[in-house]
Amino acid sequence: MKAVMEAGGFQYTVQETEKIKMPKLDAKIGDKIKFDKILAIVDGKKSQFGKPYLKGYFVEGEIISQGRYPKVIVFKFKRRKGYKRKKGHRQSYTEILVKKISTKKATE
Description:
The protein has 1 helix and 10 strands; from the N terminus they run ββββββββββα. It is mainly beta and 108 residues long. The protein has one domain (2-66, 94-107). The strands form 3 sheets. Strands 2-1-5-6 form a 4-stranded antiparallel β-sheet, with no helix packed on it. The longest helix is centred in the last third of the chain and has 4 residues, at 104-107. The protein is elongated, with a radius of gyration of 19 Å.
């Protein structure tokens, strides 16, 4: 089963036991997290799409690491003008292990 979920302003296609990296979340390593903004569910040949979200579905995961991506260098210059600017940026991320994709009805 696959799910398309929205988190942190981005959309992710996830499966169970898959690892995803998303913008940093304020949580500790080992914390459980639940995403309820599910846009679509694909189960074999059967698919469901929300308008915009599906009700009753959620994705459960566990935070396995916090880190930072490699540095990206931004360099600007204008030729023959003596104008140069160099900046670096490192984006923080949270890595999540997707544990389960399910419905609220299944847990009740």
